[in-house]
Structures are given as C-alpha cells and as structure tokens.
Amino acid sequence: MTSSTPNFPAPAPSTDPDSPRYAIYFAPDADTVLHRFGSSWLGRDAISGEELEQPALDGFDAESQKALTATARGYGFHATLKPPFHLKAGRTADDLMDQAARFAAGRASFEVNLVARDLSGFLALMQKESKAAMRELAADGVRDFDSLRALPSDAELEKRRAAGLSSQQELMLQRWGYPYVMNEFRFHMTLSKRIRDDEEREALLREILKHGADALATPVRIDAVSVFHQENRSKPFLRLGHFPFGG
User: Fold this and answer.
1) What is the pTM of this model?
2) ∠ at Cα 181 (176, 184), nearest 5°?
C-alpha cells in the first residue's frame, strides 16, 4: 500500500468470529423456475432449509458433484448485494429487518437476462448484459446497511487479502469490509467452487446449460431483496426475511 491510502477505522477486536452473520441477497422466490433450478443444482433450498437431491450429471459421480458445489450450497442460491457481516454492538436482527423493509419500499423492479459463465474459475449465472439498475441496487445495498455492520477482525481482513487484491480492491476491503463491491461488483449466482482443470470446468458448464435451460430462457425480475442469516460458521445460510420492492 502507498502512503496515499486513506486511513479507515481499525477493526474492532471484540467481534466474535463465531457470532451470527447476516447478508443482503437477491434470491429468487420459492415459486420461480430460477429458484428451483439453483436449489436443486446446489442440493439445498435456502428458504425451507430442506436438503435436496441433486440432478444426475453426465461425467460426474454424486460424490464429486457434491464436492464441487459444497461451498456454494452453504451460502444458498443467491446473488450478493451486501456481503456477509456481523452486527455491530447494540444492533439487532430486528433493526436489520426494519432497514431492509425501508430499503425495498422505495425501489422499482427491473428485469435481467442471465447466462452461465466462467468467473475466474468459478461457474456462475451472470447478467447477459450489465445493467445500471443492478449496479445501483448493489451499491445502495452496500452503503445503506453499513451502519449495522461490525468492523471485521484482522483475521478476516487477512483472509480476504490472501486471494491477492488490487489496490482498488484493498480500498474497498478497508472501507466496506469486502473487496468486490462498488465498481468491483459483478452480479453472479455461484454454482461451483473454483475449478482449475479446464476440461472439468467446461464439462460442468455444459451440464449447467443443460439442466438450467428453462431458468436461463426466462428473464429474471429483480423485485425484492432478502435478508439471510447464518447462526455460526459451521451452519448454512437461511433466508430470514423477504422484502418486495415498492412494498
């Protein structure tokens, strides 16, 4: 880092790393073809908490399929708007839910078209064409919920830095607690871990295109945000609240 890097508040050492975490996601509702595909693909419904049978894939046995989707399964099928965070001292889940309701009430819905892509080795559903409305939604989500966020610990910051960050990503990490926000944001709904083998990644992408054909053929209406909750790091994320826009 250079001497011109702004000085942001130091992490709060009292944050319990095993306390609950919360996140603001776009997550399609239960009655949508996109939710059904994503939940089935990952093997878990993050709304009901139900474990699901994953689709049979050509060229992949059940064990390898489960391993390839394990991390994404824990987070639930979603696109991140405000990345996972601990609540700061004195703030509650009810405060977060109230803020989410206010945030959603003033917003208008819009549509995006999705494609399956390779994102730095991960496979994900992404926007066919980037939309200003999506960038604005994500940026507003990062800003508007930040008053509830506890500062990350040194260990959390170093874990992020281990991936190798650009100077701009480091600034985002210090300011917002996560490096891939604001102009570093890319809408994505993760479907796999990072796959380093090109042939394996391409084979899995073919299966996503096959099994997700109906979901990808249908424009997706971005019409709500969801609050997700993780009891501790060993537990999966579950939807805690769903807030339609304009409500």
Assistant:
1) 0.91
2) 135
